[in-house]
């Protein structure tokens, strides 16, 4: 799954939803076709969560967004309201991302901790390292990237809905995936840059190691 995530994303988040939408909307109506088209993505997301083999911040984020997004869709009641509710939901998610920066717990940092822990690194040491100012700032900017992703998507969706009404649904699916892929690669570049900064800054590693040793001795 890891090696084919782009192809699988395309199939479950674009191909299947578009096919279901276009094949079923005349028979069951726009709203129920929208709900049905989300099922492949929900199933795929659950499998991605299971593939993590560990309940961590990233896994909880996947499940939380899945549950919240599904509730937004199911409780909308009709097609046009579903589309507008998803616009609002995207803005709320963006605001939540930015809030994690305000409270000095940028969610990207915790995603990073999950990743390095899966690689066998000590979470306590990594957390102290990631909170070093030089690295922390990069994580904060990555979170801004997360928020920007949702803001751009929501704004484009709002424009599409205003221009095309319910017909904006299939266009939104394609645009969502294009934006997600584009910004995801940029965001991943940020994570790789953090790794580069760490490798080029052995003094940070020594500083964190020294701080933890001093805390252990004083406790």
TrEMBL record:
It comes from the Bacteria. NCBIfam families: VC0807_fam. Keywords: Membrane, Transmembrane, Transmembrane helix. Signal peptide: none annotated. The keyword Transmembrane helix applies. This is Intracellular septation protein A. The chain crosses the membrane at residues 7-25, 31-51, 58-76, 82-103, 138-161, 173-195.
